[in-house]
Amino acid sequence: GSYDVIRKRLLDQAAELGKRAEELNELRIKTFGGSQLNLLATERVRTENNCVPRDIRAVQGKLLFGYNVFMGLKTETVVSDVFSVHDFKENGDAFDLSEIRPDDGHYLADANFVREFGDLYKYNRDTKLLMIRTTETRVLAIFQVGAKVSDQKVFRWGIDKTGAIKFIDTRGEEDNVLPRQHDFEFTPVRREDQRAGDHPHFSILDEVFVETVGGDLTIKVENNTKDGKGVYREPVEDSNQVLDDAEIAYAKVGVLIILKIRPYREETTRYLVFNTRTEHVMRIDAIGVACHQLPEEQGIIFPGGYYLRTGDYKVFDGDPKGMMFRRQFRAPNGEDVLFAYERVEDGHYLLLPYNLIRKEVATPIPCHGYSIFDDGKLVIFKSLSDEPTKVHPMQIWQTPFCTQEHAAAAPTDGSFLAKVGNAELVRGISEALTLQRIASGESPTRQSYEDVVSSCRRMIDGFYWLPNEEALNLSTTVSALMATAELIIDEFEKVAAIRKRSAEALADAEQTQTKIIGSLRPNDMKSVEDFMGSLTELRKQRGHLITLREMRYMDLPRVDVLEQQVVAAYDDVSKGAVEFLLQPTALEPLVTRLSDVVTKVGEAQKAAELKPISEDVDKVGEGLQVLGDIINGLKIDDPTQRTRILEGISEAYSQLNRARATLAT
User: Fold this and answer.
1) Helix (H, G, I), strand (E, B) or coil at 116
2) With bands split at pLDDT 50, 70 and 90, how would you rate the model's confidence at 70?
């Protein structure tokens, strides 16, 4: 049909757009360099005392290392027992991380800091360093001073415009505030959102419908309260709850709707993501810990995974419990974003580097401390055990997360792409590849085609460089794709109607077959009429399934499964029928029934009285035909058994023909 022709054209154009976007990305990489994370070296930092490392941070180009020392017989704790400063210089393929002794003007040698530090450890014997944090204007050292992690004392230094660092005080709690763990707000459902019916539910923005009644949590895509079925369901603990009992809230994030649901009398809050484009539902409880939007409305990211607006997702192994969002680093190239999470209790960090073009998180980096220098060098360490040691291995990575100043100093080749800029090209290439994925989706909807049109128009209006030949003239392919998407929308409505009819026909066939097979009990059948009726119904059902194959957009694999069920049931009843027919008196009730027809015809006073008799005769004839086919199709080892059954059926046929003749006269 027309839809299939236009759909093929759309897929070809989407593939061409993806090919050109990939080629442009290769040119961009040649111009500006790639953004892969590369492991450069593994070095070792040495400390004077045996200690358990706790955190590291880059401060003014040097590495500030914090740790906890077990003092033993030592009665006084000094600054060098908790902090050390290390150089960070490249030396060929290696790096110099040798310790630097703070001089009199160093921020760790400040008299006020040394005094406050000494008092802290003097009056709080269980004090231990939790972590080090830095901002553009602050350096923070967070200590635990009590039995709970929340019992904290925060030392802080200020960084002025010249880069000088000066100790301020020990009241830095106001600077040690966690950022928002969700960059969107949840909206509780209201009574006005309720939809009454046999299966009531809440309407979420009229796009998805949710309820926790009837023993399960159900998510529907249709506002249908007559049916309790949906696209997603999972059990709840209390099956007797009513609609108002559950706590339900939602947040619209681009094309995603995030559902926050706590069923009645349950301790755990469930978080589910509903994709309004693909109508896909996925439960991701890690969203409750922290969740943020990806750039360019590409989706969401949370501790240990991500979910994209295209429906692609990935959840990494590991327990996200307690992992709080701490910071986001955006690379100047516009292509990469680093999301940093932390768990204060054990000093564990999780770094998720996300790439806007590849639309994926590279391998997550778990560690116990990390630091990023101005040139994008990333230093991390992983504590292999809680045993104190003097040697601490550090991994050094090259990343794209350098400062804007460092990126601006990089030379360019003066080409058109260089003038456009890396970040601008990344946005356009990322949008083109997203557009390709949406247009090539395996289960398109009207909304997905409308998204293609709107995305094409947004690209043409938003990126002035698309028509340029050095940028491979992406505008030509984008314009052609938009025209085809506009053309396919009307055809899709026709296809959607056909698919709906096919789905309804298949659902009716499934329902009918469930009733037929559910009522079959060959061992309980006591008469030939029982076998004839069951076999006739199964044959009709199989014939109906065969006709379903002729319908367009029919789910043929599902039809195959249904047909296999019918064939298996037919074989079981057939074997039971053969065993029954081997009984000498098996067909006597049927012969007697047909003999009575002649008597009933003679007693009939009106023509209307003959109609039910005629229908009964036709039904018996159909059943006899089935029985005959069964006997002819089955392999019966004893010829005398086959002959005996056929003789009985022949006698029944003679009575059938006599009854039909009587009706005809």
Assistant:
1) helix
2) confident
Residue 622 has φ and ψ, to the nearest 5°, of -65, -40
**Amino acid 479: pLDDT:** 95
613: region left, alpha or beta (phi > 0 left; psi from -120 to 50 alpha):
alpha
List C-alpha distances in Å: 327 to 62, 134, 178, 647: 21, 11, 9, 88
pTM here is: 0.76
Dihedral sign computed on CA atoms, order 101, 84, 58, 106 = negative
Q: Do 105 and 111 form a contact (C-beta atoms < 8 A)?
A: no
Q: Which residues pair with 389 in a beta bridge?
A: 51
Residue 395 backbone phi and psi in degrees, to 5:
-95, 140
Task: Specify whether the CB–CB gap between 574 and 546 falls below 8 A.
Answer: no
How far, CA to CA in Å, does 159 sit from each of 60, 259, 547? 10, 42, 79
Q: How confident is the model at residue 384 (pLDDT cuts 50, 70, 90)?
A: confident
- Residue 319: pLDDT band (50, 70, 90) is confident
Average pLDDT estimate for 333-351:
92
Contacts of 45 (CB under 8 A, 6+ apart): 63, 65, 84, 86, 97, 99, 381, 391, 392, 394
Nearest CA to 628 among 528, 517, 522? Answer: 528
Q: Which residues contact 93 (CB under 8 A, 6 or more apart)?
A: 40, 41
CA distances for 605 relative to 600, 610, 613, angstroms: 10, 9, 13
3-state secondary structure of 311: coil
Which segment, 72-76, 260-264, 439-443, 484-488, is predicted with the most confidence on average? 260-264
Average pLDDT over residues 619-627: 68
Q: Which has the higher per-residue pLDDT, 498 or 26?
A: 26
Confidence of residue 447 (pLDDT cuts 50, 70, 90): confident
What is the C-alpha separation between 214 and 283, in angstroms, rounded?
20
Degrees to nearest 5, angle at CA 85 with 83 and 88: 145
- d(C-alpha 56, C-alpha 208), whole Å: 46
Distances (CA, A) of 198 to 211, 239, 244, 262: 12, 15, 15, 22
- What rounded mean pLDDT belongs to the chain? 87
Half-sphere exposure of 639 (CA within 13 A, CB side): 0
**Element of type H or E holding 95:** strand 94-96
Q: Is 450 exposed, middle or buried (0-12, 13-18, 19+ CB in 10 A)?
A: middle
